[in-house]
Design goal:
By secondary structure, the chain is α/β, with parallel strands linked by helices. The protein has one domain: Nucleotidyltransferase, domain 5. It contains three helices and five strands; from the N terminus they run βββαβαβα. The radius of gyration is 15 Å and the shape is globular.
Length: 139
């Protein structure tokens, strides 16, 4: 399987990769900029242009589902799930603990193993704790 889009919205940077069949890796890492949705989509578009492929050439999406920042996970997973659904390609979830000290080649092996006989099924966020939602102060 080739042309896999990998998205990692879990830390203070957005990581977007396109993995080719053990050949080239195109990668963009940028610090968050608001609004996150536009930033993520802009990076994906930039990466696709850099790799000289169209979105329809993607065969799968792999996304890190957490744990991580509440807002960045929500936005990152909405982008990943929507792209996978629109392109009718499988999507898989990865957790950060699976990716400790993993290089791109090892990442590709992990993704390929998880993709065996996989169909589209939305990925849910993994927060690792209850979200801390604050309320406005009384006036």
């Amino acid at each position: 399987m080739s042309n896999i889009l990998y998205l990692n919205p879990t830390n203070d940077q957005l990581v977007v990769l396109i993995l080719f069949k053990n050949k080239k890796v195109f990668k963009i890492v940028k610090r968050y900029q608001r609004p996150l949705g536009k930033t993520f989509l802009k990076l994906i578009n930039e990466l696709l242009k850099k790799a000289k492929i169209k979105p329809t050439a993607l065969k799968a999406i792999a996304v890190v589902c957490g744990p991580g920042s509440f807002s960045s996970l929500r936005v990152g997973l909405v982008v990943a799930n929507t792209l996978a659904w629109a392109l009718k390609i499988p999507i898989i979830s990865l957790k950060t603990d699976e990716l400790v000290l993993v290089n791109e080649r090892q990442l590709l092996k992990i993704i390929k193993k998880k993709l065996e006989n996989k169909r589209f099924k939305p990925v849910a966020p993994f927060y690792d704790k209850e979200p801390n939602i604050t309320y406005p102060k009384s006036r």
